């Protein structure tokens, strides 16, 4: 085997390990994100100690964490599978290199023995002097040089192959250790999800016993949310009418924007998908739009915004600069703030107190108010909506990933 073949094998191994490494690093990143999400779910939810009054809430929490943990287990399994493939490839390459190294060493040993015997029979000088002609002597000299070069290359090949073999063996041991840790983590997560599913079954039984009561509660909350949505629509419609009247325009379905407000709206759109979250730390517990209720079969809920669980005492923050359009009082003395960004509106609902005033110009990240913490279930939840005029948008497509 020549040096080119050895180098080709080493380069092939490098690219194989590199591609597997990229896939593994992506799965490892995803696994760590899911582990962090489970931690956040446990920290921000599961606050209540009054199970009798919060059965449905606790069941929702369990359903959420079981869903995340299931994704984590799938990711762990995928990561373990990638490691298994890498281990198998490593073992194959190690076997191949060991065989090649054995052949190289055997050839080299034979060469050394042959060289030694040749040296005992006659010296190199005698070998040259015994030539019948100058041409033959020259050819013999070239042979001696080529033989020495070949012997040197064989030694280099052995050294390179031995080093590569050592690196692959170390890599194999590391991967086997990683796989053992992943198997242990898989078992741990399986045990956790088993306990959670047992609790879920127990809670489902209790919820079913009071199904009518909980369905009535869900419908009542949905009716209250629709009432707030209609209130928001009226406020925005009135603001649209006012902007058109001030500009001497006829009634329109959209805002009449000044050049400054057009630029503001344009900048907002340019940052779509990168806007900051309305809380410093949070977890989305209800998504935007129509969706099945997480725990009550046959019940569909509709959300004009997203519900974000956060820490007790957390402040809602403006996701972009704009002007405070309205401050409204909700049921239970909770408050709602609307901020206008050109022809876009953001709504921050479920606040205890408000830190801005009507007409204030606010910058990105300015604290708007303290988010309400429910006394019964212990959760602190911001209801955040995003609208273009009166048309609801999915806030998740506008805000970036939370850090």
Automatic annotation (TrEMBL):
Pfam annotation, one family: Peptidase_M23
Q: Does the keyword Coiled coil apply?
A: yes
Species of origin: Aureibaculum flavum
Spell out the coiled coil positions from the record: 17-107
Tell me where in this chain the M23ase beta-sheet core domain is found. 303-395
InterPro entries noted in UniProt = Cell_wall_metabolism_enzyme, Dup_hybrid_motif, M23ase_b-sheet_dom
Q: Which UniProt keywords apply?
A: Coiled coil, Signal
Name used for this protein in its record = Peptidoglycan DD-metalloendopeptidase family protein
């Amino acid at each position: 085997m020549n040096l080119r073949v050895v180098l080709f094998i080493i380069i092939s191994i490098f690219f194989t390990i590199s591609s597997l490494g990229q896939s593994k690093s992506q799965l490892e990143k995803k696994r760590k994100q899911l582990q962090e999400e489970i931690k956040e779910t446990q920290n921000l939810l599961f606050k209540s100690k009054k199970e009798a009054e919060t059965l449905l809430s606790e069941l929702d929490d369990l359903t959420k964490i079981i869903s995340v943990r299931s994704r984590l287990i799938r990711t762990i399994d995928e990561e373990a599978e990638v490691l298994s493939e890498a281990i198998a490839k490593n073992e194959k390459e190690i076997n191949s290199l060991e065989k090649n190294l054995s052949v190289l060493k055997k050839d080299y040993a034979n060469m050394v023995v042959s060289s030694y015997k040749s040296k005992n029979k006659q010296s190199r000088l005698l070998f040259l002097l015994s030539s019948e002609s100058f041409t033959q002597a020259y050819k013999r000299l070239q042979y001696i040089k080529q033989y020495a070069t070949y012997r040197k290359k064989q030694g280099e090949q052995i050294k390179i192959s031995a080093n590569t073999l050592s690196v692959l063996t170390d890599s194999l041991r590391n991967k086997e250790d990683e796989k053992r840790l992943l198997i242990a983590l898989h078992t741990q997560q399986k045990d956790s999800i088993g306990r959670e599913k047992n609790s879920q079954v127990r809670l489902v039984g209790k919820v079913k016993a009071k199904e009518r009561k909980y369905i009535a509660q869900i419908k009542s909350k949905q009716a209250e949310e629709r009432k707030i949505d209609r209130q928001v629509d009226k406020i925005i419609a009135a603001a649209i009418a006012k902007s058109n009247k001030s500009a001497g325009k006829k009634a329109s379905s959209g805002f009449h924007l000044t050049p400054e407000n057009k630029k503001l709206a344009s900048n907002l759109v340019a940052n779509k998908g990168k806007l900051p979250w309305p809380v410093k730390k949070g977890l989305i517990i209800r998504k935007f739009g129509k969706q099945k209720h997480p725990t009550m079969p046959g019940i569909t809920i509709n959300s004009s915004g997203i519900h974000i669980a956060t820490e007790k005492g957390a402040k809602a923050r403006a996701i972009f600069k704009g002007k405070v359009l309205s401050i409204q009082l909700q049921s239970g003395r909770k408050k709602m703030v609307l901020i206008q960004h050109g022809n876009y509106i953001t709504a921050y609902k479920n606040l205890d107190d408000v830190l801005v005033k009507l007409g204030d110009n606010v910058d990105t990240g300015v604290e708007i108010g303290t988010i309400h913490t429910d006394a019964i279930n212990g959760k602190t939840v911001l209801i955040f909506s995003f609208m273009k005029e009166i048309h609801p948008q999915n806030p998740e497509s506008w805000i970036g990933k939370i850090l």
